[in-house]
Amino acid sequence: MNYTETLHAVDTLKALKLLGIEAEQKGAYIYFPCSCGNTKVIKAYGEKKNVFYCPKCKDSGHIIKLVSETMNERDTEKWDFKKASYFLAEKAMTFGATPITRELNMDYKLYYHPFLKEQGISEELATDLGIGVPQGKTMLSGCVAFTVHNEQGMKIAYYGIRLKDRKAVFHKSFNPELYLYNWHRIQNDREVLFTIDMFDCARLISEGKQAISNFGLPYLSADHLELLQKCRFVEFRVENQYIQEISKQVIKNLQNYYRIRCLDNNQ
Fold this sequence. Notes:
The protein has helices at 3-9, 12-18, 63-72, 81-91, 114-118, 123-129, 198-206, 222-228, 240-253, and strands at 24-26, 29-33, 39-43, 51-53, 60-62, 110-111, 131-134, 143-149, 155-162, 168-169, 192-195, 211-213, 233-238, 257-262. By secondary structure, the protein is an alpha+beta fold.
């Protein structure tokens, strides 16, 4: 998991709680004590999520640095970037996460953008899956929106991928760690293909395959693993940069049949 992905995925309050740091949230900002005697501020969401700053001593950094520094003061083992990232991935991703229980009563008018054709997604498939760029001014303006359903098939959210930079955009009530895209259409006794890439997932579906995605997250949450355990056979299609983390989680947690394919070298 790289720097940007970790900052986006980590629940700030849970991370601070795990470190034994008392904190108070006010809007988008969380305040906690600084060693200089002043108060640090860290963003809980937005573009600068999990980046902190102290206006007095000018200390600044991100949540991974904070974990490394705090744990190095307490532990005899060295806490580097990688160890701190894994700590956050395993322990600070689902704090306060609750499933959505009501059907989404909002319908975006989605149009078929040329970008979808470039991605190998036909207009017919886009209509069938509920994929497109919303018309008018919305939270997902300038994004490709994917209609999201829960395990029972109830429409619960829209998940957006920004056209200009491929960044994820979604409402804070939706937690991607609780769901797998297209899971409601899956037959568990048939082979299931797992991919991090949402567009790859749609392409695989167009080929008549059973495909699911974890909304671009570079790891599997406990809820993802619980769902995947229900499948008879899963093939994980993973790029090299994510394969170490995904493989570790799959080998450790899944008892059913699976195969891991590295997309970079097609192994």
